[in-house]
TrEMBL record:
Pfam families (alphabetical): Phage_connect_1 (PF05135)
Organism for this UniProt entry: Caulobacter zeae
This protein's name: Phage gp6-like head-tail connector protein
Matching InterPro entries: Phage_gp6-like_head-tail (IPR021146), Phage_HK97_gp6-like (IPR006450)
NCBIfam families listed in its UniProt record: put_DNA_pack
């Protein structure tokens, strides 16, 4: 089960949604996909300096898609730059980013 939640309502996306996004038809990688999904959502939240996804359909959609983009990078064996998410993911979530001063 994916552990990262949108406030208190449930997972940001399901394992099945992640597998569709990754074009994975088999169950062999389910555990790996769940782990990478949690890491992807955590990376997006960390980028924004927040603990939960903001409420609302638009923020939830932005965080979901950004997390799926990061998941694609991780599942494909790519590495995330420690300081930056992929540009397309940043574009979606930067409006929700809390900057520390």
């Amino acid at each position: 089960m994916l552990n990262v939640v949108v406030t208190a309502t449930g997972p940001l996306f399901t394992l099945d949604e992640a597998k569709v996004h990754l074009n994975v038809l088999h169950a062999d990688d389910d555990t790996n996909i769940e782990v990478l999904s949690n890491a992807a959502v955590a990376a997006v939240l960390q980028h924004c300096n927040i603990a939960t996804v903001p409420e609302g359909d638009i923020p939830e959609a932005a965080f979901k898609v950004a997390s799926l983009i990061v998941l694609s990078v991780l599942y494909g064996g790519g590495q995330l730059d420690a300081a930056r998410l992929p540009a397309s993911a940043r574009m979606l979530v930067d409006p929700y980013r809390w900057l520390r001063v």
